[in-house]
Design goal:
Elements: H1 2-11, H2 23-44, H3 53-64, H4 72-95, H5 99-123, H6 129-153, H7 164-172, H8 177-201, H9 205-224
Helix pairs in contact: 1-2, 2-6, 2-8, 2-9, 3-4, 4-6, 5-6, 5-9, 7-8, 8-9
């Protein structure tokens, strides 16, 4: 697997400038995870995102204006939990200076948070407000951690949760090496959203969260080797 990931990472830098090892390929996997968890949260947790905070800020405005199908409480909870996860990663970065080790530690913690959300889905007797709040908090906290570690690693054009600038770059810049990474990011997010929605609407949210947990665990183990 390690060799395959390194080859995939090299293809993301066709100009031969990759200095991040296998991390670019792992960030593509994390982008798929973002699509999956946002599918689960938007379709099953009252139209809220756990990865896309821009959407939540907009939803908060809609909810305060009186939109009946949106929850200001859920939007605020998602943003607050995301901030808490990013804050925790920032504190961890003060103790773990090596970017590779920080990625492993944060991704392992993210895996446990999504695994905890899966356990909630499997064991909750109902889908009431408390269960939804717990799932939003767990998933958004994990995505805040992911976003913060990706920001610190700073691989060009691979942000894992945001596509606005990616799409802008595709349209604004001439074709080149960054185009490959931008297209990979766009394809990964679309794939995650498509698969996450199909699993959520089919077998159920547990299936989608199982897939997300498996991808995060794979990324953690692969980063160790």
């Amino acid at each position: 697997m390690t060799k395959m990931l390194h080859r995939a990472a090299e293809r993301l830098f066709p100009d031969g400038t990759n200095r991040y090892g296998a991390l670019p390929a792992l960030l593509v996997l994390l982008t798929v995870v973002s699509g999956i968890v946002d599918a689960v949260s938007f379709l099953g947790l009252g139209h809220v995102f756990v990865a896309n905070m821009t959407g939540n800020v907009v939803f908060l405005g809609f909810a305060l204006a009186g939109a009946s199908d949106l929850s200001a409480r859920h939007s605020l909870l998602a943003v607050g939990s995301f901030v808490a996860g990013a804050w925790a990663t920032g504190r961890a970065a003060g103790r773990i200076t090596a970017k590779g080790r920080l990625f492993v530690s944060v991704t392992a913690a993210h895996t446990m948070l999504v695994g905890a959300a899966l356990a909630v889905v499997l064991t909750a007797a109902h889908r009431g407000g408390e269960v939804q709040a717990a799932l939003i908090a767990l998933l958004a906290c994990g995505m805040g951690m992911q976003n913060a570690v990706v920001r610190r690693i700073a691989v060009p054009d691979l942000k894992t949760t945001v596509l606005t600038f990616t799409i802008t770059g595709l349209a604004d810049d001439p074709f080149g090496a960054p185009t490959v990474r931008r297209l990979a990011s766009l394809a990964a997010m679309f794939t995650g959203a498509l698969c996450g929605a199909a699993l959520h609407l089919g077998p159920g949210p547990a299936a989608a969260l199982t897939a997300a947990t498996a991808l995060l665990a794979t990324a953690t183990v692969a980063a160790l080797t």
